Amino acid sequence: MRGRMISPGKARGEAIVSKSPIGFYGGIDPKTGVVIEKGHELEGQCVKDKILVFPQGKGSTVGSYVIYGLKKNGMAPAAIVNQETETIVATGVILAGIPCVDGIDIERIKTGNRLVVDADNATVEFK
Amino acid sequence: MQLTKEQERMLAGDYGEVVERNFRLLVRLGEIYGADRMIPVGSVQVAGVSYKSIGDPGLEFLEDLAGKGARVKVPTTLNPPGMDLVDWKELGFPEDFAEKQLQIMNAFKRMGIMMTATCTPYLVGNLPSFGEHIAWSESSAVSFANSVIGARTNREGGPSALAAALCGVTPNYGLHLDKNRKPGFLVKVNAKLRSNSDFGALGYHVGKIVKDKVPYFKGVKDADVDQLKALGAAMAASGAVALYHVEGLTPEASMMDTNGLETIEIGEKELREAYGKLNTGKDPDIIILGCPHASLKEIATLAHKLGGKRLRKPLWICTSRVTKEAATRMGFTELIERAGGKVVADTCTVVSPIERMGFKTTGVDSGKAANYLPGFCKQAVVFNNIDELLKKVLA
Predict the structure, then answer these.
(1) pTM for the model
(2) Looking at the structure, do residues B252 and B149 belong to the same domain, yes or no?
(3) Surface of B (274-303) touching A: CB under 8 A
(4) Is B184 within 8 Å of chain A by CB?
(5) CATH placement of domain A4-126
(6) What is the pLDDT of residues A33-91, one digit of tens each?
(7) ipTM over the 0.85 cut-off
(8) Could you give the CA distance from residue A53 to residue A109 in angstroms, rounded to a whole number?
(9) Which of A113, B52, B170, B359 could be stapled to B82 by a disulfide with Cβ–Cβ 3.0 to 4.6 Å?
């Protein structure tokens, strides 16, 4: 699948897929990488070293710092794949240096799929 | 993207590492979102101020910038930190937290940022004009500036807003362009909206459905500025709404075409459902009002409700230092304090470490606070209008 490069880099790993948007501030704990938003479909799951797949961001504009914090704390996802990345997530992944691609049909990806994300070439492949 | 000669020099590092690094972020965002050029901004609002939100990584990031001589080029105001900067000890904020928070404030000050410490910059002197290009973060302020004032800003992340402040420009895309300010949903409201919390419940419900699209409201007969503030804040928290129009009330509404839009109907039933979802607790340990920060009018209303009464539980109303000063001058602070409440300045519910201060259930009238408190402050929430909340805590 080919999309658009948001932030460069390459990563491989296991997909963790959310069908609903993610708000990083108040949604994911930057110290543990665990989803803490009550009632979110990924609540209680850890995003560390995963390929985090979700349609788009939502919520607070502080989310960029949470993404940066996840990386500094060693709890960041290996890559992020979106349907459409908005500014908050884009700023966060660029600062943190997390590979990120959007414009991907995320319906085709299931949690547990092994993915290779090559953001430099804006591609996401199943392995 | 077309850059001016001077902008090319910024990118080449002629103005130092700070400008180069921050301008590079703006250029990258511009390339992603198809901007044709950079545009000057009239002001910036910087979010990501509380130590609780940004932690040590954020503190180091800001100190690094300040240490390298970063200075803002346009008037720049600041979001709330995680504590009252004057009365933090008395209110019980932890010492270790305060120390880090003050370091963060110092870094912002060294960059020349105005220490307004509020999520309502438009109430304390950072008031853009209709059509003015600005680069704001703080999702509720973004929504207010775009919708109620008609200024133009994207939903900036904390660091992208800071980059715009340090470079004086922002990439020309998204809500800076006419074509992206058109509505994507028509919301027909057939319910009576009486209180701030009714507007919060409506916003929570609509934000979940429209996500990052622009809703156009019909049937909202009357709303004051505080209620529009509550509506926008809730939609920006449950979704990513940066702009909304209300027929007959907001300045761009009459320019918009609503023919053929997907329609959402909101009646009393939908409103009650939103209340149901936001209520996760029963007996509040504390009531916290002022999310977004209370206006002088909201503080006056509370003061009159509390006059001569006695609270059994703590009650805070959060506001900016500027507004508190006026409230104190008017005698409102004294009325609230005599009943046992506090007017807390600078900080707010969502960014303060209330879970470390012994509170487990919080009562709020804000759809935004009700949305965030369970995740970020580990609180059960009682969400209702002020009168119902006060019934639970008045002696």
Answers:
(1) 0.94
(2) no
(3) 280
(4) no
(5) 3.50.30.10
(6) 999 988 899 999 999 999 999 999 998 888 999 999 999 999 999 999 999 999 999 99
(7) no
(8) 8
(9) B52
